[in-house]
Structure formats: structure tokens, C-alpha cells
Amino acid sequence: MSKFIFLYCSFILLQMLLLFVVASEDDSNSEVKIEVVFMPSECNQKSKKGDLINVHYDGYLAEDGSQFYCSRSDKAGHPQWFVLGVGQVIKGLDVGMVDMCPGEKRKITVPSSLGFGEKGKAPVPPNATLVFEVELYSVSRGPRSMEAFQEIDLDKDKTLTKEEVKHYLKLEYERTGTPKDEPFYEKIMADIFRKSDHDSNGLITSKEYNVYEHDEL
Ligand SMILES: *[C@@H]1O[C@H](CO)[C@@H](O)[C@H](O)[C@H]1NC(C)=O
């Protein structure tokens, strides 16, 4: 009898153990893993959802370490601009780049479910775990807020011209102590217009600017 109970308990234990292993495996399969590779000594503004951030990132396949994306060689090598947390990049990066300081470097491991999924996207194969090496250059607070829009809109006509956007970028870079040359600003500006100027008329209206489509605009 006691032998039977022992066996039974062992069986339950084994099941619990298996459940635990399966559960924890599931967790690691659906979560982004963040390793801070470099942390600058000063950090006055951490990235948060809705911020306009400027980053370099290289993507590798976890499986064999091969590189599938390099922002340093793509699109003329200038750092990418995107609004954090609103789906302009894969979910894993939206999640993995929160609370990051300008100058910080991270290694972010992204499960396929938060990357390119079961289908993949060439050259990323199906079900691929991805590893990104990310360097954050700058964070602009709540760029899709009314305040930021008004700050960029120098002549207060409720549309942003290329000159106004470029002027703002220059100020941002000078403010963070990393001024760049003219072609650099030109490229970033072109990128911003490509993403935001939906009717391609060379102007970004407050409506085009606001990705959240708040009613206050
Ligand atoms: C990807 O993963 C899904 C779910 O685990 C599986 O059904 C599918 O067969 C996998 N695809 C490939 C190509 O391995």
C-alpha cells in the first residue's frame, strides 16, 4: 500500500515537474530577453512608448549567428528613426527598447512570436529566434504630442515643412551634443517624410503627424 502511494506521489511529482518545465519553456519562448551591453554614465531621458527614437540595429539569427539586417549598411547607413511602441518595428524591438538611455547598447533576443512568426520573412526563416544588437542615439520626448508638433511648427501654420523638420533635428542633435553634417539631416528628414507625409505633398499636417490619431488635432 505504502509502495503504491509512493509511486503515485512520484508520478504526481514527475507530472508537476514536467508541467513546470513546459511552462517555463513557454515563458522563454514568448518573452524578449534584454542584456545591457553598455550603459552611459549619464542618463537624463529614458525611452518610453510614443517617443521618437534614433537607433542603429543589427539583426542576427540566433540559430547560426548569421546577420540578416544591418542598419549601418541599409538605407545609406544612417540611424533609423521610429516611434517606439506603435508597431513601426517588430513587436520584440518595440518591447525590448523601452527604458533605454541615449548612448546605451543592448543585446535583445526576440522569440519568433514577437519577430517574424511562423512564416518568417525573407531572409528570416520560419520560427526564427532573432538577436539584435542595438545602439540608441537619441530620444525625443513624445514626438507625436501636440506640444512637440507646435515646437517644430515654427510659423504656426499647422503644417510641417521640410525646413522646419530639419531645423528641429539640428536642434535635437546639438542639444544632445552630437551635431551632424547637412547630408545626415537630409537623409533623416527624407525618412521622416517618407513615413509620415502620406499624400506626398511635401508637408506633414498635424493629422499625418499624429500616429495615434488623437481627436484633439
Ligand atoms: C513553426 O512553428 C509552428 C508552431 O510550433 C509549427 O506548426 C510549424 O510547423 C513550424 N514551421 C516550420 C517551418 O518549422
From TrEMBL:
It comes from the Eukaryota. Its EC number is 5.2.1.8. It catalyses: [protein]-peptidylproline (omega=180) = [protein]-peptidylproline (omega=0). Residues 50-140 form the PPIase FKBP-type domain. PROSITE patterns: EF_HAND_1 (PS00018), EF_HAND_2 (PS50222), FKBP_PPIASE (PS50059). Residues 1-23 form the signal peptide. This is peptidylprolyl isomerase.
